[in-house]
Amino acid sequence: MTLPTLVKTWEFIPNYAQAATGVILTTNRTLLKWLVDNMTTNAAGLWVNASNSLVTPSGLATVRYSCNSTVAGSAGDGVNRWASLTDLVWNNAGSAHSWMVLRMYNTAELLISCEGSAVNGQNLVVATSPSAGFTGGTKTARPTATDERVIVNNTTWGGVVNSDASVKVHLLKSTDGQAWRWLIGNTAQIGTAWIFGKAVQFNPTAWPNSFTMFGIGGSPNTGVLTQTNLNTNANFLGYGASAMAMYLGGMAFGGAQANVTITSASDLSGNWPFLPQELFSSTTSNRGAHGYLSDVWYGSTTTATGASFPLTGDQHQFAQFGSLILPWCRTAPVVT
To answer: Taking the domains of the chain in order of start, what are their residue ranges?
Structure first.
């Protein structure tokens, strides 16, 4: 099987098993703290390379500043105030709650704010800033940015919802820290998918700050990497001339996207297709095809989540999650 050539070099935390704690809030706290800890440090020693060998990761994010609901930092202090699970406190804006700002490459930033009235920690505000950076923030109000895009707005972010569950967690990043994918799965479905980072631009001058993010979550056993979420609706948010929403478009024939129309492996090669994708916007002042996600392909919707490629020889170099195929690390992906 001829495999695609990767744009980037990748590192992985694959198949991490998070057991149900018995308390929904505790499990959600654990998942979010796990994300921050592993995006910013290698303390757990979980990162591997494409050969599934332990590595010291490169391109990690840094903590810009944070709040644990009792102490709010100032922009650039670099302090992680989520030292324990109880430092993640939920409340609506106007009441004391926790938040975290992470910086990735250059000035791209990710805000996670524990805003929401849901007592189980199932709601968040998640926002990005491609270049301006977040400023301000108190115990009762999250930081803001002039170019922010709110990805999740006081609604379900993923994790576990309504009932506790054991889940499998996957974190992928490029070694330059420009591209990240966070997936949480249960019962052969990906119920949480955060895909964020720098897109590859067709015209870097026209779209210099190409940080974009897709973030959708539901119950762990409800798949979110669907055609509706990826292609029918414009769920990739970024900033061009102004705030814009983008579709993850793909090849089409027969009146439908190709990965939906193709329901069997190739008669000639026996292989399933890796189909290209592009980011399209119809937002006023931002219309057009602007770029694509690094090392992401559409796979046939007939292929199950957790399938891997190639099927023989040097296996598990790529894995399919929902409608998307991503680089993988030569171990069988586990999603249940």
So the answer is: 11-252
